[in-house]
Amino acid sequence: MKNVSKRVLGALVAGVLMVSPIISSVTASAAKTLTTSPSHTQEIGWYNDYHHEIWQADTNNSSTMTLHENDGGFRAQWKCGPNNTSGNFIANRGLRWGLNNPKTYKDYGNFYCDYECDWCAGTSGNARIGIYGWAQNPLVEYYIIEDWKNWSIAQDPSAEYKGSVNIDGGEYKVYTISRNAYTIEGNKGFTQYISIRQNTRNKGTISVSDHFKAWEDLGMKVGNLYDISFSVEGWESDGQAEVSMNMYQGICDCGHHKDDSVKNIQMEYDSQYKQMRFTWDAVNGADSYGVAVYLAGKWRVQEENITDTEYTTPKNLTLGKTYKVAIAARVNDKWDTANAIKNAVTFTVE
């Protein structure tokens, strides 16, 4: 497992250009592909308000990471074995506050990660997917492992079993490992906190803050947050992954990300004026609604201050053209755009 400086604060709300509590704006742009090689081993930065990193070491091959535009996900391909080396690969996206952040997780709302990861890895080496990050005071590198291939960190002879917790409908066994290696603070000693899901999965909601709380209940202090990311990692392994992901900073203690999606969307076409009227059920707590249309490979907001539960398009829609429309609700200043895109409706003008 490799330790390196990562991620910067931000979160993208599923590609629709609406404001969430974590961000101030989103800039739409084409998907971006990053490549690492033996002579260029790392790429880090921001893209659509998520921080990202791709990193490789000790391999003669190249790896790629393509950043999604419409969510915090990415596509990764790596080739780090078998080559009789300790080849290592990491690709991740998420939130970053950086060094010396004065806040702990208790100073934020609950953190959640909704994800789906279609992935595979060869029979050599090992690989894993899940939440990854660092915290300071004490210096901790942490993992919430959702799925793994060939070898589990629990098999490390230095892993100390701390207990078992039940979160998000599954049992996680918790371990710590003391290490001395490169960290976000330089070469020094640190501790790894590791939750490993026993009924592994490749999609779902990860209630990140619930793991922080569970660790502290087991005597494992979680200090000042440096970052939180969704990560794909491989060691002496070849593989690929397609990740869809969004991170949320919640404001409740509900323990699960709340579904504020717009439901029961109905469409009524006016052939005289060539326009479509949409209606939907009211969402509890919503103070406004927004409508976005998928055009030329991007979600484009048409209206985001709708106070009623209906919207009519402009007149003279193009005959024969197919439109894809997403409708989102704003609840407590947060747009539920992930579900809006998932529930988008499509129609063709005739």
TrEMBL record:
InterPro entries the record matches: ConA-like_dom_sf, GH11/12, GH11_AS_1, GH11_dom, Glyco_hydro_11, Ig-like_fold
Pathway(s) of this molecule: Glycan degradation; xylan degradation
The protein's enzyme class: hydrolase
MF terms in GO: endo-1,4-beta-xylanase activity
Residues of the signal peptide: 1-30
Stored PROSITE patterns: GH11_1, GH11_3
Record keywords: Carbohydrate metabolism, Glycosidase, Hydrolase, Polysaccharide degradation, Signal, Xylan degradation
Assigned EC number: 3.2.1.8
A Pfam family per the record: Glyco_hydro_11
Residue positions of the active site: 141 (nucleophile), 233 (proton donor)
All copies of domain GH11, residue ranges: 38-246
Gene Ontology annotations of biological process type: xylan catabolic process
Reaction equations catalysed: Endohydrolysis of (1->4)-beta-D-xylosidic linkages in xylans
Entry similarity comment: Belongs to the glycosyl hydrolase 11 (cellulase G) family.
Protein name, per record: Endo-1,4-beta-xylanase
